[in-house]
Amino acid sequence: MSIVKSGSATYKPLGKQGKGSISTETGALSNHPYGFNTRFEDGKGSNPEELIGAAHASCFTMALSLALADAGYEDGELKTTAKISLDKTDDGYEISQSALTLNAVVADITEDEFKQIAQDAKENCPVSQLLDTKITLEFNLTAE
C-alpha cells in the first residue's frame, strides 16, 4: 500500500524578480507566497527550507511519540524545531544539515531509555530517511 500526498508550486515571471505560490493537497497552504526574496532576503512568505524543516520536525515528533507510547509511556509533551542549513557552494546551493532540537516532558522515563528511543526515531522517521544530509539531535528531557 502506498500513501500519496501532494504539494504544488507556481512561479512567474522567471528569475529573481519572479513570485511564486505553494499549495498543499489538504489546503493547509493555499497559494502561499514564496520567491527569491523570501528565500534569500527578508520578504514575507515561505521557502523550501522552512517547509522541509516543518516536515522533518513533524515526522520525527510523531515517530517519537508513537515509539514512546509503544514503550508504555502515555503522559508527555514533545516540541521539536528543525533548522535546515542552506549553504552556498561552487555549483550553487545545497542543503547540508537538519538540526533537530527537542524539548520533551515524559513522565517516569530515564534519560538513557529516552535517548535510545529518540535516536531510533531520528534515524527511522520517513523524512529522516529521505534526507541525504547530516541530521543532528539535541534534546532537553524533563522527567516528571
From TrEMBL:
<protein>
    <submittedName>
        <fullName>OsmC family protein</fullName>
    </submittedName>
</protein>
<dbReference type="InterPro" id="IPR036102">
    <property type="entry name" value="OsmC/Ohrsf"/>
</dbReference>
<dbReference type="InterPro" id="IPR003718">
    <property type="entry name" value="OsmC/Ohr_fam"/>
</dbReference>
<dbReference type="InterPro" id="IPR052707">
    <property type="entry name" value="OsmC_Ohr_Peroxiredoxin"/>
</dbReference>
<dbReference type="GO" id="GO:0004601">
    <property type="term" value="F:peroxidase activity"/>
</dbReference>
<dbReference type="Pfam" id="PF02566">
    <property type="entry name" value="OsmC"/>
</dbReference>
<dbReference type="InterPro" id="IPR015946">
    <property type="entry name" value="KH_dom-like_a/b"/>
</dbReference>
<dbReference type="GO" id="GO:0006979">
    <property type="term" value="P:response to oxidative stress"/>
</dbReference>
<dbReference type="InterPro" id="IPR019904">
    <property type="entry name" value="Peroxiredoxin_OsmC"/>
</dbReference>
<feature type="region of interest" description="Disordered">
    <location>
        <begin position="1"/>
        <end position="28"/>
    </location>
</feature>
